[in-house]
Amino acid sequence: MIRWAIARFARHDRIDAVVPVIAGDHRALFSNAVHGVATADPVLGGETRQDSVRLGLEALAANPPDFVLIHDAARPLVSGALITRVCSALAKGAHAAVPLVPVADTLRKKRADGWTLVSRDDLYRAQTPQGFRFAPILDAHRRHRGDPATDDMALAERAGIPIEAVPGEERNFKVTTADDFGMAEPLLDKGDIRTGLGYDAHRFAEGNHVWLCGVKIAHDHALEGHSDADAGLHALTDAILGAMGAGDIGQHFPPTDERWRGAPSAQFLAHAASLVQAKGGRIVHCDVTLICERPKIGPHRDAMRARIAEILDLVVDRVSVKATTTDGMGFTGRREGLAAQAVATVKLP
Ligand code: MG
């Protein structure tokens, strides 16, 4: 969140410098978070938000700017347009410019005997960034040190600084709970999108059924292999491992290991999916192509998609199963064996 909040100011053409204020024990976290973002060295904050803001302002006092915007990193969705509105109000002569959003919900105040309706007319929520002329807001912070205020606007009012409102933005909400984070995350970051590719082939042998994409299909041959020889799930497992940079199926489930003799390949796939989950990621989509003359895949396609979706805990429209022949050419054309290719898309935080 702090990376996004800083980046939105750092790349704004009206902003000359960003001074982050952080907790002393967050130095390592901070430098990881802002890697590659233009920011000044962080200033160490104090016990309260107000102390932290004052210390941030003091850090600028030796080389004071004309104006300062004070922002909560807990509002990483601040837009460039909102930053511009605050800057423009100051440039046009405002002493202080504060984004305000009208209250849309019906308000109720709790009483001993129930809930009283409170008129929401003329009620607004104050957001950040709040912009000020630098010297007066620093002075207000120095004079009202230890005299708690919830934001800088409240402090400015105490100091007699006139406030001008600019339109805030619903999207610029404050992230304070896990629920808020859940709302902010998809708006913030497209994530780390990975694609992995998998390929597998198995030879036909004597038998009366094959396993393909987790579905048992009656056939005049079986597939030869250490496990259940499900080339479709093997290719898909490798695709997911590939997206994670986590080696290949043979490393995770060595064919020399007796534990995997005749094993259902669903467990290999589930293992690959668990690696994604362990990193806080999710599988976005997967696509398997089975390459064979026989058995016919079409009649089993829906069952295969459903089974893969079940193993990966995905909705079915994120799973694709296709089939092709090689027009009689090569080992699949001669019906010596069957091959499978797969692509998996994974999103990591
Ligand atoms: Mg295999």
Detailed description of the structure:
- With 349 residues, this protein is an alpha+beta fold.
- Helices cover 33% and strands 25% of the residues.
- The chain has twelve helices and 16 strands.
- The protein has helices spanning 2-10, 27-33, 49-61, 80-91, 134-143, 152-158, 178-188, 231-244, 249-252, 266-278, 301-312, 330-333; strands spanning 21-22, 43-44, 67-70, 96-102, 107-111, 114-118, 124-126, 130-133, 164-167, 192-205, 209-212, 215-218, 222-223, 282-291, 319-324, 337-348.
- Strands 3, 4, 7, 8 and 9 form a five-stranded mixed β-sheet that branches. The protein has a five-stranded mixed β-sheet with strand order 13-10-16-14-15.
- Strand 14, helix 11 (301-312) and strand 15 form a beta-alpha-beta unit.
- Helix 3 (49-61) crosses helix 5, helix 5 crosses helix 6 and helix 8 runs parallel beside helix 10.
- The longest helix is centred in the last third of the chain and has 14 residues, at 231-244.
- The mean pLDDT is 94.
- Residues 200, 202, 225, 231, 234 line the site of magnesium ion.
